[in-house]
Amino acid sequence: MSTSKVQPGWTRPESPIHEGERTCRGASASRERWTAWEGRFIRAYMPDQHRRFFEKIPFVFTGLVDHSGQPGASMLVGHPGFIRPHAHAYKTIFCRRW
Questions:
Q1: 65: which residues sit within 8 A by CB, 6+ positions away?
Q2: Are residues 62 and 23 in the same domain?
Q3: Is 54 in the same domain as 32?
């Protein structure tokens, strides 16, 4: 049985959900439901079990927006450990540009 405490969710005043995603939800009842739930499962920090997971995986999918505003996606691959979570809020990814 786990003795870990349940950590608080999102505590910042702004929504953790991107405006584009909120727009996609539209004015439906599901948008209202999600708005009530989103702060419960999105955190401003990375739990220890997630940090340990990222240290073990050999790849990660990334999203970005280029200088002209165009979105893109990529997959970064490396030996386990190429992703290094620090503190509880960010990660360093060691990779080479091709």
A1: 71, 72
A2: no
A3: no
How confident is residue 68, by pLDDT bands cut at 50, 70 and 90?
very high
**Is residue 54 within 8 Å of residue 85, measured between CB atoms?**
yes
DSSP string, 32-77: HHHHHHHHHH--SS--HHHHHHHHH-SEEEEEEE-TTS-EEEEEEE
Is the pLDDT score of 32 beyond 90?
no
The pLDDT tens digits for 55-64 are 999 998 988 8
- Neighbouring CB atoms inside 10 A of 74's CB total 10
Do 58 and 25 share a structural domain?
A: no
Question: Do 62 and 32 belong to one domain?
Answer: no
Burial 39-64 (b: 16+ CB within 10 A, else e): beeebeebeeeebeebeeeeebeeee
CA 45 to chain centre: 9
